Amino acid sequence: MSSEQNAKDVTLKRFSTIQLLNFCLGFFGLQFAWQMRIILSGPVTENLGASPLIFGLIWLAGPVTGMLVQPVIGELSDKTHTIFGKRRPYLFAGAIFASLALWAFPNSALISQKIAAMLNIPEHVFGGLIIAAIMIWVIDACVNAAQGPYRALVPDLVPQEQHSLANAYLSFAIGLGSVVAAGTAPFLKYVFHYQMSITSQFIMAALAFSLAMTWTCITIKEHNFKQSNNTKTEDKSNKPSFLKKISEFFKFSPEVGKICLMQLFTWIGIMSLNIFFTQYAIHTVYGVPDLTSVTEEIKNSYSDTVNRATNFSSVCFALQNLICFIVSIPIGLLSTKLGNKKVHLISLLTLTFAFIGMGLSKNPAFILICMAVAGIGWASILALPFAMLSEFIKKGSEGSVMGIFNIFIAGPQVLVCTLLAWFIYQCSYQIPSGMNYHWEYAFFIGAVTIILAAIITNLIKER
Fold first, then answer.
1. In the CATH scheme, what is the homologous superfamily, with its name and number, of domain 16-221+241-459?
2. Which of 41, 236, 240, 333, CA to CA, is 20 to 30 A from 323?
3. Quick check: pTM over 0.85?
4. Integer angstrom CA distances of residue 54 from 50, 133, 136, 152
């Protein structure tokens, strides 16, 4: 650890439990919105005519904006010095614009009609699917604009010895936000017999994101947000360019390369689940045929089944994230005793078994158990790789490094959104009620990549 790191840690006070809970509240809202987008984007876009391949291409919004937005915003937030702080302007702006897009997304068909009437053009020229795709891109860009600077707040504000614990609390917030987001509609349906509309769920997500992030921006105080003119001048002359930072990123240690490769394979697996699970629930578990090219009458005949399948998917994600919520803090505490590597390796192996189980079964009860087991690996993925990387971050580059690291989260998603989506599109088959796709293949491919991530994890040498 450098003398600069030691000097900084002396000035950073340890966070209490209450402070850590408050610190992660904005991440709760961010994940609430993101989870709603994961679960419900498939039914919305399929209803507008998106095939599996088109659906995958729309999902490219996440990785592309992740690779472009997070590194750029991370670099900008490192250099930003305002009376509002370095990171907070990006957190607030990202939440507000994402919330507007969350409201617009389920109303894409209506917006398309209004635009067509206003411009006096045919509706298909600027159709609902195009509007939905644009809104997905806005949501993902804004979420990424907020997420990178939020992660950078950990090395900014939290002393080194609490980094693993702080990241575990962020994992805790992600789990809780996902549970509430995914569980609200099924809870209202099963307890009060009220089916919450998709539009209402997205409005709920928009409110959660904007209100929670606003609270974080108000209550979290950043350090040293002002610099003198002399310091700014010195920074401009001495600070390396962003491209040079990318080059230096891989020179910190050979272990950084291993951590990045581990992330790459991990997130191929994770996104195989996140992108395709709801469609798998609708079409494989509940047997609904592909609805992209059928009449409105046929779509309406399956509407109740689609609602049941969507609620089942929400329950599965809620259970997965409930387990994530429960085990995230114990994983953080356990990693401080046993090391990040050992705990993460075991967690990845449990995730592998969950993926294989879901690929082999169509039994809803067994799939619920598999998703619960997957929550253990999910909690570790959300915390420990960032804790591993934090050992190698140079001070003053936290935002840009976290942004660069996100390339190895976002990049793999491109493969899932294109090659895996194309592969599933090629694997169609006939059922008595129409055509269907082998959505479960995504889990077998995910299991293979998670095993590769576990092998690489075992090769990492921690400090």
1. MFS general substrate transporter like domains (1.20.1250.20)
2. 41
3. no
4. 5, 10, 13, 34
